[in-house]
């Protein structure tokens, strides 16, 4: 019997088939950019936590991948007889194994016990993390570790970084001792059931559903969906399926076709999507669309931002997961029809926010509509910049007064069957301007990739040649975003 890691047991909790595939067919897993970003954030948060919980620097870090699992377990047993903090302490018992983020000694040597702290990069304690802690606690207790208490440390996103590498206050702690220690029988049953799944010769038959994306998107989803009959027009293409009646119907009819969904369960927008998807005909209410746009005369501006969110802030005065703008693109359509372009990108490694704010004020000028897509994001970033930099607050807030969101205009007046129920720009653009494509871009093709590329570029270990390459990719991507808005507006005005 193989010992199942804590992550494997959490995978089992999400879906037994996921566990089986992770063990027997791991090559089928597609790791998303979001998942990679979460892993990276977890590493950064863990490194800071070790410094905070061990200010004297006397702790010992165990690396099972370098040392081997058996050696890691043996070193842990030896260190549990000491008074040093232990990081990534390894335990194996009852058919499962786990590594604890932080183990802190409690009491005198003659009655030594341990406080276990699991560090999370989230900003609250999630339900799946409570399962995680219960598993960790059960394995530690089964391995005869004398646990004094169990806690979760998670990010306080209201905390402001004072600079100088001082991260005191970054974490909140929640004690889960009583809860975690009371779930032993439950966890033991999970392990037994998971072991049975792993021992199956063939993968279990489990249909796809809501569990494929909760608590995280499963990397095996594409594989599993490929095994099932696919609806010609999946009901999931219907937008915003939020009413209980629709949810109940879809739960009772998994993987159903939108033709099977009764019209009486749908709102007007969903009925429109259904009708035009099935007919293959485009919906375009030109007159009402023109009426919405008639008041917007040149000069017109088309704006898009790129931002980075850091779990561990690195710039003075910023908060965990704060949207830090590092790039914008602005196309300007003048009164004479001339299209010009301004852009900003800061890869210096310094906080780009103030330079961004000043460049934005200069680029937008003082008059003319500023179009954005899903503009609430840009407006929130601008408002935050105004709060941080009072000297240009009035100019920034004046830009917000000029912002017009193209998304609701498109959503109200246009729909092409190829959009599959989405009005995201990357769905609308191929229908309106098929000559433009994000997939033709090299490297950076969406906002998540842009943030990853930015963080790589400002890393001191990144070579100048690679940094220059990233700069080109970011500029091309952001420029396409705003040129796409120009094309969308021109289409809607025809």
Keyword list:
494 residues, alpha/beta, seven-stranded mixed sheet, 16% strand
Structure characterization notes:
The mean pLDDT is 95. The protein contains 19 helices and 14 strands. 44% of the residues lie in helices and 16% in strands. The protein is globular and about 85 Å long. 31% of the residues are buried. By secondary structure, the protein is an alpha/beta fold. It starts with a strand and ends with a helix. The strands form three sheets. Strands 1, 2, 3, 4, 5, 6 and 7 form a seven-stranded mixed beta sheet that branches.
Biggest sheet, in brief? 7 strands, mixed
Low-confidence runs of at least 5 consecutive residues: none
Count of helical regions: 19
Average pLDDT value? 95
By oligomeric state, this entry counts as: single chain
Helix percent reads: 40-55%
For the secondary structure, the number of strands is 14
Shape by Cα distribution: globular
Question: How would you summarize this macromolecular structure in one to three sentences?
Answer:
By secondary structure, the protein is an alpha/beta fold.
